Amino acid sequence: MSSSEASPQKGASSANKITHLGEFRLKRKLGAGGMGDVYLAEQESLDRKVAIKTLKKKFANDPKFVERFYREAKAMAKLDHPNVVRCYAVGEDHGFHYVAIEYIDGKSMQDWMDELKQLSIGDATLIILACLDALSHAHESKLIHRDIKPDNILVTSKGVVKVADLGLAKAVDEDNSMTQSGTGLGTPLYMPPEQARNAKHVDHRTDIYALGGTFYNFLTGKFPFSGDTALELIMAKESGKFESVRKLNPEVPEKLDLLIEKMMAKNPDHRFKNCAEIMSLLEDMELESPSLSFIDGEAASGAPRVRRKGKSKVSSAAAPKRSSGHEVSSAKDAERSTSKNKKEVVEQRVWFIQHQNAAGKTIVSKMTVAQIKQGVKAGVINTTAKVKRTAEGQFIGLAQCPEFDSVMQVRTIKDKADARATNMQDKINEISRDYDRRNRRRFFKNLAEGTWGWITLIIYLGVIAGICYLGYLFIPELWRWIAVKLNLS
Q: Per the annotation, does 311 bind a ligand?
């Protein structure tokens, strides 16, 4: 498609179509969104592809909205994060207000969900972690998305996750309503109930709720709430009840199920305080895949990957000149023998060590290097223990001595891992307690509602019985009175 075929027109009567907006040459139309049309363009000064979003006429005719649009676009341009679609420029040309953003050569997660129907736990977790990282960065800059959904989560051809429309979603939402076109108050399928009640007074926790709903959709292929109309959907959300992820997908671990439920708590105060808290929990679960499985392996080669250390190789040019096989072998044997003897001598050296015994009392003992290492590995000797070579010397920390450096590094890593596991268990216990509290509240609420229903039924049946009894007593008398009045036999 030529640029003239894809460019916006100034009006229906205009004969010529626009091929440039500022320094951006329009190439073809990509689609239309809540804000307006979207075009693929080329930034001529930097020779790079960009996406151009133009404002609809109903927005462009509102000076207050245009001012806010520019303000939000400038705020978005300040975001610099690998998982956020970048904003390059905002301006006005030929009567069109536009914003130039990073062009993503891939598809949205909604496109992928239409194709895949459901994601693996590893893929879904990897995408959500990237979104949490992006949203955390945005929230620190006082930007709230307010329209998180699979449509606004893009994946490049190399498997990099990008959150789109950060900042712009807020500008467009403020003057829209549920009955207008566009994103309005957000997408009803994912937005929290408080956003439907008052979209102008929400905070970053609205993004947490919507991302929880998106996570739910990724893992189950379904939506937590349903309704034939937006109003029915919002009313369903007000109940706060939905089928658990684990019920629809038994492969989902219970702690992940609890995490999603807390992200989607009806009351914002019952959700996580921030995205960093959720990221910490998810990373501790270690459920994410190293890369997205639905992206082709070769295409995904540009995605960030963990580089593992390998053995270094010595080139033939840098290698030492070879001697005869016998000489080389003898030299190596001698080197190994010397190294072994030195190590044995070091291991048998006696040190004075200041440490705590089993009763918690600080004592000074004499131990060999080998004994101290074994004690540190077994956890008998604490990492705060101090040593000295001679009785007159000064105690120093174990980590300061080369003899104990390696064993202390291993012990430190182990202590951190143990602390991390304990912290993880504490967080899981916290989610479980919160889950139990809400279940108890739900039980008593249902019990109260059920008891009141029975009481109402009993009263209703009593009233009917009373009416029947009064009829039984007075209808014969009433009939006799009517018969006398009408002279009936």
A: no
